Amino acid sequence: MRIMAIDYGDARTGVAVSDESATLVGDAWVINCRKADELADIIAREATSRSVGCVVVGYPKNMDGSIGERAEKCEAFVHKLRDICDIDTKLWDERLTTMSANKVLTEAGKFGKKRKNTIDAVAASLILEGYLGSLR
Predict the structure, then answer these.
(1) How many CB atoms lie within 10 A of CB 9?
(2) What CATH number is attached to the domain comprising 73?
(3) What's residue 102's pLDDT?
(4) Using CA atoms, how far apart are residues 63 and 3, in angstroms rounded to an integer?
(5) 109 Cβ neighbours under 8 A, 6+ residues apart
(6) Distance CA 79, CA 12 (A)
(7) Residue 32 sits in which domain range?
(8) Residue 47 in contact with residue 87, Cβ under 8 Å?
(9) 32-90: per-residue pLDDT in tens?
């Protein structure tokens, strides 16, 4: 079963999908979309076409574990996904994922526009890696 991870954003959303065995991150990309309903439709179509059995949406809790505005937006987005597709969808704690993604890109020598265009895909990959690791 493939698993899809989402790093939900207001303008750009990172997406990563595992391999068939749910062991490794396969594809990762960014969807540029500002409308949550439209984005949910795009993700539902991608998940269906790639035979995804579970969608994991990054849940950016505050460092103290409280729920802020960004986490509330992710909760609302998960509800939209659940309303339009019949794929198991869950929230996954993603604290520090963007910081880790920045570190990965710095170490890879990616700066400026190259970094902006890939950071969300890297963050989604890190969310997926964390979730896959929890399954082992």
Answers:
(1) 22
(2) 3.30.420.140
(3) 63
(4) 26
(5) none
(6) 19
(7) 2-135
(8) yes
(9) 999 999 999 999 999 999 999 999 999 998 888 889 999 999 999 999 999 999 999 99
Per-residue pLDDT tens digits for 93-121: 887 666 676 677 677 666 666 666 688 88
Residue 106 has a pLDDT of 72
What's the rounded Cα separation, in Å, for the pair 52 and 9? 21
Domain count, the chain: 1
Lookup: tokens for 59: 């849940």
3-state secondary structure 48-71: HHCCEEEEEEEECCCCCCCCCHHH
CA atoms within 13 A on the CB side of 94: 30
The one-letter code for the residue type at 134 is S
User: Lowest-confidence range among 11-20, 40-49, 89-98, 126-135?
Assistant: 89-98
CA angle 21, 26, 28 (to 5 degrees): 145
d(CA 97, CA 123): 6
Alpha-helical runs (H) found in the chain:
36-49, 69-84, 97-107, 112-135
